[in-house]
Specification:
With 107 residues, the protein is mainly β. Helices cover 0% and strands 45% of the residues.
Length: 107
């Protein structure tokens, strides 16, 4: 018996939400952070992107720089530079303006 069996490329993982999740929602499961690729109905299997580049809302762009680590503050629904209880989302790859930071998701 092999020690490992290939399942998929790993750019997405399955998840089953307990309530409906709209496409584009950041989902945190333990230390796994992903983005819902499509709308997912409650108790149905959906797909979370765990790689890619995403634009995320921030409270303000002050202090952000390309290369910074970005964390997801689930309570506020924004990216933050504060570790605390927030989960690592990825690294900043752009500052498109407004209250948006562009982040490369890395899990």
């Amino acid at each position: 018996m092999p020690q490992a069996t290939f399942v998929n490329e790993g750019d997405a993982v399955d998840f089953v939400p307990t309530s409906a999740v709209p496409a584009g929602t950041v989902v945190v499961q333990g230390n796994l952070v992903g983005v819902a690729r499509r709308d997912v109905a409650a108790n149905q299997t959906g797909s979370l992107a765990v790689v890619g580049v995403f634009d995320l809302p921030v409270t303000a762009l002050t202090g952000w720089a390309v290369g910074d680590l970005a964390y997801w503050n689930a309570a506020a629904g924004v990216a933050t530079e504060t570790v605390g209880t927030n989960k690592l989302f990825g690294k900043v790859v752009g500052l498109p303006g407004g209250n948006v930071v562009r982040v490369r998701l890395n899990q």
